Each structure stands twice: as C-alpha cells, then as structure tokens.
Amino acid sequence: MIKLCVFDFDSTLMDGETIDILADAYGVGDKVKEITKKAMQGELDFFESLSKRVALLNGMPTSLVSEVCSNLKQMNGAKELVKGLKERGIKVIVFSGGFHIATDLMREEIGYDESFANILHEKDGVLTGLVGGEMMFGFSKGEMIKRMQKILGVSKDETMCVGDGANDASMFKHAGISVAFCAKEILKKSATHCVDTKDLREILRILD
C-alpha cells in the first residue's frame, strides 16, 4: 500500500519548465531552453546546467519573477490527482530542481503537503544570477527521498514517484512504483510504469 508519493514539478504537476517561462519573460528564452533540453536528456550535469541557466536571469526584476510564477499553468488533472491521493491517506510531496517561489504558490492551488526546491538569490529587487537550495544536484532527489522515508517511517514498497526528466531517476531507485509521465526516453528506462497521455488522472488507475 502506497503511503508516500513524490512528484517532480516542472512538466509534471506544472505544464512547462519554470525557468524557461521566466527566461521567455526576460528575453533570454532561447539560450536557456537549449541548456534545459540538454539537461533533461541527461547530456549535461544538473548542477552545471542549473547554474548556467540561472546566471542568464541576472538582473531580472523580482516583481516580474513573482508575476510569472503566479500564472504558471497546472498540468491537466493535477488538482484531481492530488485530491485522489490524499483521500487515500497518501502524503504528497514535491521535489523540484526549480524554485520555491513556483512550488509554494502552486501548493496553495493544488494542495500537496510540502515541496523541496531551490531559491533564486535576489538583491535590491533584482535577481543576482545565483541560486541555492535543496535540489541543486542530479542526486538530490534520491538523497532527499531516503531522508523522507526515514522521517515518515515509510518503506521503498510504500513509496511512489512521478517525474519526466533525467534528474528524476535518482529518486525512482527508491520507489516501489515509479511513473514516467510524458517523459524523456532516458527516464522511461528506469520506470515501473509509463503514462504517455497528458492527463495526471491516469496515475490513479495505477493505484486502482
């Protein structure tokens, strides 16, 4: 019986990549998307790619960051899925290589229990191009899920993970059910289940 479900955020619970959307709003979208694409396919080290992408946001007004993150689009079926999981008594957590400003705002809309992500450094009302936080490395999700399981007293067989990109593979190793959602081929190889329909409600069928 599943007791803990851990979700990726970008292109999983949220329809798109937060950093790409921020970059578009700041006029550096093409440069950032090229790095994102390589990172999600596992061609670039996650820490290096995150640092390079955030550096391109140097000087972006924090007011614009807040505006963009307040208008991110939920993935189809996200709210219904989280509601369905919580009705089953499952703890729902988000691990994001993206940013707390996005995951914290969407938590209020969707209702998951908590999120672990990164923080965009700001000074004098603008981004500095620096970033820090809980999900800075390709192995971060794997390390964090082991800690969560220990704190909650949950086993691997009682854990489900859902994600779409290469950096989700580290947490898939520690889950009895791992769902590659509209995912890159590199992640599908690590998954117990694949959902290729862009509707998160399909995941409830796996539990049924």
TrEMBL record:
Similarity section: Belongs to the HAD-like hydrolase superfamily. SerB family.
Question: Which pathway does the database say it acts in?
Answer: Amino-acid biosynthesis; L-serine biosynthesis; L-serine from 3-phospho-D-glycerate: step 3/3
What name does the UniProt record give this protein?
Answer: Phosphoserine phosphatase
Keywords, comma-separated and alphabetical: Amino-acid biosynthesis, Hydrolase, Magnesium, Metal-binding, Serine biosynthesis
Q: Which CDD domains match?
A: HAD_PSP
Has keyword Iron-sulfur? no
Catalytic site positions: 8 (nucleophile), 10 (proton donor)
Q: Which SUPFAM superfamilies match?
A: HAD-like
Q: Could you tell me what reaction this enzyme catalyses?
A: O-phospho-D-serine + H2O = D-serine + phosphate; O-phospho-L-serine + H2O = L-serine + phosphate
Record Gene3D superfamilies: HAD superfamily/HAD-like
Please name the GO terms of the biological process aspect recorded for this protein, alphabetically: L-serine biosynthetic process
Q: Name one GO cellular component term.
A: cytoplasm
Q: Name one GO molecular function term.
A: L-phosphoserine phosphatase activity
Cofactor requirement: Mg(2+)
Q: Which organism is it from?
A: Campylobacter californiensis
Enzyme Commission code = 3.1.3.3
Q: Which Pfam families match?
A: Hydrolase
